[in-house]
């Protein structure tokens, strides 16, 4: 495996840490910016909105640009976005910096995945993708808790400075180690690719993906205040509990990736059902610290257990759109990451408490189950659906990159 692929994995570590670290920083950030915690939670939605828009837009806009130069430009903009966030004098400036960072993040993923594949032989593509996905998983295990620890010890701005420093290291690696990758000789037929959006099954897959992801992040985005204000844990516990969510994500990804090949809808329905149950139990037992800790870990498992199946489903039904399939899946996940924290914020603002965000997430998951079953019904009626060319194992593993 070329060293350059690991550099891309390091870059993804910085990207993933920035996306998810606010889950452990909301209380001090809200106090410093003189806004409510639900308003601070909208910063998580701001990043997700940037990903929703940026993934398909930059996937198309950068097709004819030099790959290496594009990566350099995008990681530079991302790093500057972290600096802008660390220096932000007002909430509005911080919000804008999150959107800009998210656009750069989406573009880097769209280009970086293609570069990683281009640098390795055909039989090593899955391993190359695994390295990039590993960067995201490590961000959940180490980066997010480390951000919470820095926020508690040195202030929330220090977490932004830390991600900015990681971005600078990634930039140096991209400049020195990423080789020149020639752009494709022919442009993809975007008119043909855009035609996938005429398929109702594609929109059904988008809705299921958004509801599955949004249901978890409706509660997880406010996990820090839930753990301290409802469960009664000390602030010093928050980084460790968030790290457990990341460990659960690693476990869930491994299990889901193993079984989604042969049992795609089985993984899909069972995973979202498990999320529904776990969120309902969390809402009922949030005042019990031990229960909250265990359930945070299990939510990490269920959330990432469904990811390979969700992505594979999108790739299967959008086989005619190799450029937009992954970008569409990314946008769908982040549509959920936008609506989940927003809905959670509404619940808190209504005076229902932090634990009620788990009830709201469970309601989203129930709708996701219904739509997943509807999708399964259409799949069976169509005689098994359409499959992507190539081995099912490769498709699921490559599709996993869209989880970001």
Describe the structure.
This protein is mainly α and 404 residues long. The protein contains 17 helices and no strands. The chain has helices at 3-20, 26-33, 37-61, 67-87, 91-118, 125-154, 156-177, 190-194, 200-220, 223-230, 238-259, 264-285, 289-305, 307-317, 324-349, 356-381, 392-399. Helix 12 packs across helix 14 and helix 14 crosses helix 17. The longest helix is centred in the middle third of the chain and has 30 residues, at 125-154. Mean pLDDT is 81; it is low at 385-404.
Query: What low-confidence regions span 5 or more consecutive residues with pLDDT below 50?
Result: 385-404
Which structural class fits the helix and strand makeup?
A: mainly alpha
Tell me, rounded to a whole number, the average pLDDT: 81
- What percent of the residues sit in helical stretches (DSSP H or I)? over 70%
Query: Given the structure, what is the number of helices?
Result: 17
Largest β-sheet summary: none
Principal-axes geometry comes out as globular
**Strands, count:** 0
Rg, nearest Å: 20 Å
What order do the helices and strands follow? HHHHHHHHHHHHHHHHH
Give short descriptive properties of this protein.
single chain; 404 residues; mainly alpha; 79% helix
Question: Topology of this structure?
Answer:
Elements: H1 3-20, H2 26-33, H3 37-61, H4 67-87, H5 91-118, H6 125-154, H7 156-177, H8 190-194, H9 200-220, H10 223-230, H11 238-259, H12 264-285, H13 289-305, H14 307-317, H15 324-349, H16 356-381, H17 392-399
Helix pairs in contact: 1-5, 1-6, 1-7, 2-3, 3-5, 3-15, 4-5, 4-7, 6-7, 6-11, 9-12, 9-14, 9-15, 9-16, 11-13, 12-13, 12-14, 12-16, 14-15, 14-17, 15-16
